[in-house]
Each structure stands twice: as C-alpha cells, then as structure tokens.
Specification:
Blueprint (H helix, E strand, L loop, with lengths): L5 H33 L4 H22 L2 H6 L1 H14 L7 E3 L2 E7 L2 E3 L1 H20 L6 H5 L2 H13 L4 H17 L4 H21 L1 H11 L10 H13 L24 H34 L3 H25 L17 H18 L3 H8 L4 H7 L25 H20 L6 H9 L15 H5 L17
Antiparallel strand pairs: 1-2, 2-3
C-alpha cells in the first residue's frame, strides 16, 4: 500500500474480479431458464458479455479523459440524460418490462437511461459543489441548483416507476452533500425528508406496500408476495459452508424468480457456500477502503467529492441488495453491482470504476511517480496518458500584500509561483511560496535594522545621508 500506484492497481483488480465473477454466476443462474425459453443456455450470458466488453471500453476511456474535460462535459451529459428520461415515458418510444417503463430497445439491445442519469448527476454534482465550496460559500450555494435538479431527475424516475433507482439517486445526493460539508442540522433535515418521501412511495403503490408487508410479516403469504424472499433464504441455507459446487444450484430450476438478477447473491451462497458469500462481501469491503483512501489522498476537490460519492453509491447499492437477499431489508429491486445481470448497469458501473481509477492516478505521489517514468508494465501496455497536477486557485483574501491584482509585477510573481508549484508536485517535494521567500530575504530597515538584521550605529541614524549630523549640522569624521 505504500507504493504510489497501489490504489490504482487495486481498483482495476477489484473491477476485473467482480466482473468475471458476475459473468460466471450469470451463466450458471440463467442457463436453465434460457434453455427453456430460447433453446440455448448462452442467450442472456452472451448479452452480458457484450455489455461487459463495452463496459471495459468505457473504463479505458474514463481512464484517459482529462479532469478538465470531464467537468466541462458534466452539465451537457446531465441535460441529455434528463431528455432521455422524459422520452422513455412516451408509449411507443420507451419499453415496459416488469411493470416499469424504463428502457429503450435499440437493435435488440436494451438501454436503461436511469443508469446513465445516476452517473451524469454524480459527476455534475461533484463539479458544482467543488466550484462553489469555499470560505464564503452560503447554504444556498450548496443546495441550489443541486436539490431542484435532483427533484426533477427523481420525479422522472418515479413516474416509470422505479423505486430501486430512486433510492440509488438519493444515496448519490446525500453523499454529495455530506462530503461537501453541509451543516449537520440541515443534512439531518434532508435525510428526514427523504425518508418520509420513501415511506410515502412505499405505501402508495400496491406492489411496493406488499413488499413492505411481506418483510414485516414473512409468513403471511409464503406462496405469494413473500415467495421470492423465502426461496432466497432456502437457497442460502442449502449452500452451507462450502456450497454445492459451481453450477449445481437447485434454486435456479425455476424455484427462485430473478435468480440471475436481483437474487444472484442467493445463487452465489448456494453454489459457493458461506465462504463464497464472504469473499464477495470482502471484495466490496476492500473497494470501500480503497475508494475512500483515494478520496482522502486527492488534492483536487472535484475528484475528492466524485470518488467519495461514487464509492458510497456502489457500496450502498451492494449493501441494500445483499441485505434484502439475506432478509435484513425489504425487497427493493436493486442489483448487485458488476455481479447481477443487467447490461446498462454493468457498463455504467465500470465507467464509474474507471473514473475512480483515474482519480487514483491523480494522487500527488502517483503524479510524481508517473512523471518520473514509473508507469509500470500495465500503464505502458495501455499507453495511458500522464495525469496533470492540480493547481489550486488561491482566494484574493489570502494573497500577500504587494502590487495590485492584474499589474505586471503581480502577474509575473503569480506565474513564477504557478511554475514552482507544478515543478514541486512533479518531483514530490512540498510546495513553497518562492515569491514570499524572496520578499522575506530582503529584510527590513524599519526600527533601525539593516537588511542583514544588524542594528545601525548611532551616527548613521543621526546622519541626514550626506555625512552631516542632524543635531549639530556639522560634518563628522568617518571612522
């Protein structure tokens, strides 16, 4: 962990391991129903592989994109996803599946715009808060227009309706506000409002209220609304400690609905046992540690906010999915990131992993190592561009006294300071204010002190500068 690129390598490794595990488990859990419907065991698996390959392509693009370009494109991307969320609600354009109108079907491939909206909102929100935060930022600057935009996106998702994506978006908004430093009193008020809103949504629609009743009273309707959660527990219990073996699940023979999607963790527990489930949880726990480590080590406020928010969102979604599979939470329909079947979800999650890996390469130690030629075999193989050092813009209130802003001496000193900070970040040395150092080296002549710190003689202080004594007016003899 002391190596400069340790965080980057860990993020890439976790993304690859979770994606490969997801492909294996999707093939195992969907093969039986795929044969029954299409005659081939590889139908859903082939679609998942295509989206996984697409996801690694966007992962690579996210690694290469400069931070400035990412921030510049954040708002156009959010606006485009809002338009897509509105279009998907129109019958004939959007496709309805399992009671939710939230997909576009293009050339036989389903695209879910709500997944794209989560990514776009996280990037735009981090850009907005990183730009507005500071010593003189007000509460209005943090909440407007972030909260109104979140309400618009949430309203379009609720109209689909999609409770799981709504919860994911709420996690993103709360994480942005928390890591941006929102006052605790205001933050708790927003959490309370969001909780009340979630309760209202859970009790208004029939299928959502039925899920809550099944969670509170599991034995009320074991063959109806409580059937899925009940079968998931049986599947986990059947796996034991060591599991029945890869591909040997019995629940996937139409005993557990959505075994390849929402309840794939139950199949993991059945085939790989308790140890397999702990390994999956351990991978997500390691990702939580690495993601927050990258956020703490980032000097760019935008990357710090984006990395912490993305980590919280992915870990929160995994916690909710595993929670309702084991019976700790009511069923919400959230997928297990990179493991559950779902093409758009897999591709967008890999995109977010790529952005986190990009942030890992922007750590100060990583920048110094990469500019020193320590790319490593992996970096040279992928031909990754070298990251640029972050140069903070200092507030006018923190400037040292000197020429007014915009004058030629001030511009020259600012350019020298900027070049010095960039050179220090590339070499790994602490940044120093070269101009301040030059000014202090000159010394002061006030209070009878010379430039080298010595005290002037009495004759020199009494002299008018031409050798005459101010008291007598006579020219003194030099000694």
């Amino acid at each position: 962990m002391a190596r400069p690129l340790a965080s980057f390598h860990l993020v890439v490794t976790i993304a690859v391991l979770l994606t490969v595990l997801g492909l294996v488990m999707v093939l195992s859990s969907s093969s039986v129903e795929a044969v029954a419907s299409d005659g081939s065991a590889y139908g859903l698996f082939t679609s998942q592989v295509i989206f996984a390959v697409l996801g690694f392509v966007v992962f690579y693009v996210a690694l290469q994109v400069p931070v400035r370009m990412l921030r510049r494109l954040s708002f156009p991307a959010l606006a485009a996803t809002v338009v897509m969320l509105a279009l998907v609600l129109i019958p004939g354009i959007g496709t309805e599946s399992q009671g939710t109108r939230g997909w576009f079907v293009i050339a036989g491939i389903s695209v879910q715009p709500s997944e794209l909206a989560k990514i776009a909102f996280a990037v735009w929100g981090a850009h907005l808060l990183a730009t507005r935060r500071g010593e003189h930022s007000t509460l209005k600057d943090m909440l407007v227009p972030l909260i109104p935009a979140a309400l618009i996106v949430t309203g379009l998702i609720v109209l689909q309706p999609d409770l799981g994506t709504t919860i994911s978006l709420a996690i993103i908004v709360l994480a942005l506000l928390w890591f941006a430093g929102l006052p605790l009193r205001v933050f708790l008020g927003i959490v309370g409002t969001a909780t009340a809103f979630a309760v209202v949504l859970a009790l208004t629609a029939g299928y959502r209220s039925a899920r809550v009743r099944a969670f509170l009273n599991p034995g009320e309707d074991p063959q109806g609304i409580g059937y899925q959660a009940r079968q998931a527990k049986f599947s986990l219990a059947d796996g034991g400690i060591w599991g029945r073996g890869l591909g040997q699940s019995r629940a996937k023979w139409s005993y557990l609905p959505n075994a390849h999607n929402d309840f794939i963790f139950a199949i993991i527990g059945e085939e790989l046992g308790f140890l397999g489930g702990v390994a999956v949880i351990g991978l997500f726990g390691l990702f939580a540690y690495v993601g927050l480590r990258i956020a703490m080590r980032s000097v760019d406020p935008f990357l710090r906010l984006l990395t912490a928010t993305a980590t919280t969102w992915i870990i929160g979604q995994a916690f909710i999915n595993i929670g309702y599979v084991v019976g700790l939470l009511p069923v919400t329909g959230l997928q297990l990131p990179l493991v559950s079947a779902g093409g758009t979800s897999t591709a967008t999650t890999l995109l977010m992993f790529g952005l986190i890996a990009n942030a890992a390469r922007h750590e100060p130690e990583a920048i110094a190592a990469l500019h020193a030629g320590q790319d490593g075999r992996f970096g040279r193989l992928l031909r990754l561009r070298k990251p640029e050092a972050y140069l903070p813009i200092r507030a006018a209130a923190t400037r040292a006294p000197g020429p007014r802003r915009g004058s030629a001496p001030a511009r020259g000193r600012a350019e020298r300071d900027t070049k010095a900070r960039a050179a220090d970040q590339r070499t790994g040395r602490p940044t120093k204010n070269r101009a301040a150092k030059d000014r202090t080296a000159k010394g002061r002549t006030a209070n009878g002190r010379t430039a080298n710190g010595g005290r002037q003689s009495n004759a020199a202080r009494r002299s008018n500068g031409d050798g005459r004594d101010r008291r007598t007016g006579e020219r003194g003899n030099r000694r």
